[in-house]
Amino acid sequence: MARSGQEQEAESTAAFKVLKRAMELDSESRYQQALVCYQEGIDLLMQVLRGTKDVTKKCNLRKQISSYMDRAEIAKKYTDQEKEDGKYHRQIKIEENATGFSYESLFQEYLNETVTEVWIQDPYIRQIHQLYNFLRFCEMLIKRPCKVKTIHLLTSLDEGSGKEQQSSGLQEIKESLKNHGVLLELEYSSSVHDREIRFNNGWMIKIGRGLDYFKKPQSRFSLGYCDFDLRPCHETTVDIFHNKHTKKI
Q: What positions does the domain MIT occupy (predicted)?
């Protein structure tokens, strides 16, 4: 179905808004974020191009797309060099009660078809809500484009009344992952304190509060109970690094 002039105008406006943000990030040397915005903006412009019949407009759009693709290629080279040098670092500050930080929103940029193995170090995968957080994280990992085959979890053992709950919960998750062809390797340590997640494509994410940065929902039927993009967060900091060779924790 052909798009109306108004729809095309709206798509064009959206595309240039994203591309403007890309150039701002580029000028601030935030190349990885700039690259993501370039790619999104170029995809939007390509949609506008496909729906444009005017020859002159098509020619102008092709020139603009080519120019942004050149900028994106330069940003990619800088990003690749930062990764190669082990200098890449991005920090995200999640404010108190902020929303829009589900695991998918936070991690999707770093997950692709090359991810086959994941290491998670988090001392607090004990209580029911923490077990559910870990389960949701695992659900994200087995979806496309990832091809995860092994997940390593290093956590602390609950020595109190919740020991059986923790053990049985993690065992159930392990069996469920096995049904999807994914191996969960569990390891416990009484001295683990740091929280970090590593993917075998080189990305390493450190979250101040680990996976447990969501607030308790107001009720079982409040927005954010199911969709974690709508769930308010505790204040925390996310640090993202890239290492050429990711080793086991």
A: 8-86
